C-alpha cells in the first residue's frame, strides 16, 4: 500500500525515461546523407560509386525522403573525434525513418565497403568494429528498401537524428535490470512481499543517482553503485523459482544477409 501511495512504480518509470538518453555518453550528429534510388532489388548496389550531385539527393535530419516500395542507397561519412578514448564503445545510431508497416525501412550497412550489420526501425544501432580509430574518416553506405509506407498511406519517410555515439555500458546494464525488476513488480499482486522488496530496491538504487538536469559526470560516477544496490536488493527479494526457461527465436535480417 505504501508504494501505491508514493507512486513508486510511476516514479521509477519516469526516472527511466529521464536517464534513457544518457546511455549515449557522447554523441555527434552525422553529416547529411545522400540518397539514390535504385531501379529494382536485383540491381547491383554501387557501393563504391562517387557521389554526383545531379544524381544524389541530400537528406538532412528531420527532412522527408524516399517513397513507397523503393530500393535505395544512403551515403555519408563519419569520423571518431580524437578526444574519444579508444577503449570506449563506439556505435552508429541510425533512426532513418518509420514506414508504419512491420520493420521497414530496412538496410544493410557497409562501412568502408564492407557489410557489417542490418538495420531496421527495431534495430537502429550498429556497434563499430574495434579497428575504427579516433581521427580516421570512414564511409557509411546503407543499401535498403523503404517498405510499403503503410500500403501507400504515407507519402515519405522522415530522417531522424542519426549520430555517432559512445555507449556507456554501466548505464545500459542498470537500465536493463531496472526494467526487468520493475516489470516483474508491476505484474505481482500489490500484497506480495516480493513486489514490496523489489520496489524498495528500485527506490534505494535511484537514491544513489544525481538526476538533477542537466545530467553530467556526477550521474555516471554513481551508476555502478545504483546497479550494485539493485542487484543486492533483488537477491534479498526472494529465492529464485526452480523453473527452466526455454527461449525459441529466429534469426534477424542482419544474420540472414551476412
Topology:
Layout: H1 2-5, H2 8-19, E1 24-29, E2 33-38, E3 57-59, E4 64-65, E5 71-79, E6 89-93, E7 106-111, E8 114-119, E9 125-127, E10 137-145, H3 149-152, E11 157-158, E12 163-167, H4 169-187, H5 193-207, H6 217-221, H7 223-235, H8 253-257
Antiparallel strand pairs: 1-12, 2-3, 2-5, 4-11, 5-10, 6-9, 6-12, 7-8, 7-10
Helix pairs in contact: 2-4, 2-5, 4-5, 4-7, 5-7
Could you report the average pLDDT, rounded to the nearest whole number? Answer: 91
> Class by helix and strand content?
alpha+beta
How many β-strands, per DSSP?
Answer: 12
> Level of helix content?
25-40%
* Radius of gyration, in angstroms, nearest whole number: 22 Å
Shape: elongated
Q: At CATH's second level, what is the architecture of the largest domain?
A: Sandwich
CATH homology group of the largest domain: Galactose-binding domain-like
Cα separation of the termini: 52 Å
Roughly what fraction of the amino acids lie in strands?
A: 15-25%
The CATH topology of the largest domain turns out to be Jelly Rolls
Number of individual domains: 2
Largest sheet: 6 strands, antiparallel
Description:
By secondary structure, this protein is of the alpha+beta class. It folds into two domains: 2-21 and 169-235, no CATH class; 31-161, Galactose-binding domain-like (Jelly Rolls, Sandwich). It has eight helices and twelve strands. Strands 3-2-5-10-7-8 form a six-stranded antiparallel β-sheet. Strands 1-12-6-9 form a four-stranded antiparallel β-sheet, with no helix packed on it.
Amino acid at each position: 500500500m505504501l508504494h501505491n501511495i508514493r507512486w513508486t512504480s510511476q516514479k521509477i518509470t519516469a526516472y527511466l525515461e529521464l536517464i534513457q538518453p544518457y546511455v549515449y555518453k557522447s554523441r555527434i550528429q552525422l553529416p547529411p546523407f545522400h540518397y539514390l534510388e535504385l531501379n529494382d532489388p536485383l540491381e547491383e548496389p554501387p557501393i563504391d560509386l562517387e557521389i554526383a550531385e545531379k544524381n544524389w539527393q541530400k537528406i538532412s535530419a528531420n527532412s522527408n525522403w524516399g517513397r513507397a516500395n523503393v530500393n535505395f542507397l544512403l551515403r555519408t561519412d563519419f569520423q571518431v573525434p580524437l578526444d574519444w578514448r579508444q577503449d570506449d564503445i563506439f556505435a552508429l545510431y541510425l533512426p532513418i525513418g518509420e514506414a508504419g508497416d512491420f520493420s521497414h525501412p530496412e538496410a544493410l550497412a557497409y562501412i568502408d565497403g564492407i557489410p557489417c550489420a542490418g538495420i531496421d526501425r527495431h534495430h537502429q544501432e550498429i556497434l563499430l568494429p574495434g579497428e575504427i580509430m579516433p581521427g580516421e574518416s570512414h564511409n557509411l553506405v546503407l543499401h535498403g528498401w523503404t517498405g510499403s509506407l503503410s500500403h501507400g498511406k504515407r507519402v515519405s519517410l522522415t530522417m531522424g537524428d542519426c549520430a555517432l555515439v559512445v555507449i556507456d555500458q554501466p548505464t545500459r546494464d542498470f537500465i536493463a535490470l531496472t526494467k526487468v525488476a520493475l516489470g516483474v513488480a508491476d505484474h505481482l499482486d500489490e500484497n506480495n512481499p516480493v513486489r514490496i522488496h523489489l520496489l524498495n530496491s528500485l527506490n534505494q538504487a535511484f537514491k544513489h543517482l544525481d538526476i538533477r538536469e542537466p545530467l553530467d559526470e556526477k550521474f555516471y560516477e554513481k551508476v555502478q553503485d545504483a546497479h550494485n544496490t539493485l542487484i543486492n536488493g533483488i537477491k534479498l527479494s526472494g529465492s529464485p523459482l526452480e523453473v527452466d526457461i526455454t527461449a525459441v527465436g529466429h534469426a534477424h535480417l542482419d544474420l540472414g544477409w551476412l
